[in-house]
Amino acid sequence: MSTPAQAWASRARPHEGRVAIVTGAAGGIGLEIALRLGRDGAALVVADADAARLETAAGALRDTGAEVRAMPGDLSLEDTATALAACALEAFGRIDILVNNAGGGVILPFLAHTPQTLKQTIDRNLWTTLWCCRAVIPPMKERGYGRIVNIGADSVRNGLWDHAAYNAAKGGVHGLTTGLAREFARDGITVNTVAPCAVNTPQLVDIAKQHPALVERFVSVIPMGRAGEMAEVASMVSYLAGTEASFVTGQVISANGGSTML
Ligand SMILES: NC(=O)c1ccc[n+]([C@@H]2O[C@H](COP(=O)([O-])OP(=O)(O)OC[C@H]3O[C@@H](n4cnc5c(N)ncnc54)[C@H](O)[C@@H]3O)[C@@H](O)[C@H]2O)c1
């Protein structure tokens, strides 16, 4: 039996001894998630298509004392996702947590999309998630343990303006969540999605400066009257990525200031 102090100390680093892959971790919400999981004790494998920004992010993560490997590449390609899992296994011998955060919207009225922007939207958000899940599930299954946390979008639930194509991609992520959760429920693997509304990323802050009306419109549907903070998404991810969330699977949990309810 641990003493209350020991129990508290272990709670303070709930992911100690765990290995977490975070995709799209070069900046924004992904970097915030990696910082949080690293602070919570996980060794990190971070990945992103933007090699230069990823290297800077990996440096920032190492500065916090986390053990970090970084792998650049386009995760909408199967080979990159396979290489990412191999990189984690080679470095740390196990994969406990996968956070599928790589993504991002090409937010346009549906008819303003081009074939390229439609394909980009699906590639970035759905194929990255699908390939990374396929790459990490076999080693997780072998060890009988895994936590997969996808980043979806609350806009799937409220049909936010100009989000139809993005919602098609993120809706795919939400659907993958329930199917994988059922399929691997008896393998010790949980699969959940965190669905944020508008989040105050550096990018959103810039957009708000240039086009305040656009961001005000997205915030107008949020009862709390503000965008979310990146840390408010990361804390939900950290919970779902931990052992404490052992009976939670197949859920899409919105971090959204109430913009959709239930
Ligand atoms: N910011 C918001 O308001 C908001 C709201 C709801 C959901 N989300 C989702 O949260 C996640 C993070 O968003 P963000 O705002 O921090 O975006 P961001 O653009 O700052 O970060 C996304 C990262 O993913 C990387 N990425 C994209 N495609 C990739 C690919 N094919 N392979 C590897 N890396 C790739 C990008 O290079 C980028 O660094 C995304 O999935 C996004 O769709 C964001």
TrEMBL record:
Keyword Oxidoreductase among record annotations: yes
Tree of life domain: Bacteria
Keyword field: Oxidoreductase
Molecular function terms, GO-annotated: oxidoreductase activity
Pfam families noted in UniProt: adh_short_C2
Any one Gene Ontology BP term: monocarboxylic acid metabolic process
Record SUPFAM superfamilies: NAD(P)-binding Rossmann-fold domains
Family: Belongs to the short-chain dehydrogenases/reductases (SDR) family.
PANTHER family, sorted: 3-OXOACYL-(ACYL-CARRIER-PROTEIN) REDUCTASE, 3-OXOACYL-[ACYL-CARRIER-PROTEIN] REDUCTASE FABG
Protein name, entry field: 2,3-dihydroxy-2,3-dihydro-p-cumate dehydrogenase
Taxonomic classification: Bacteria, Pseudomonadati, Pseudomonadota, Gammaproteobacteria, Lysobacterales
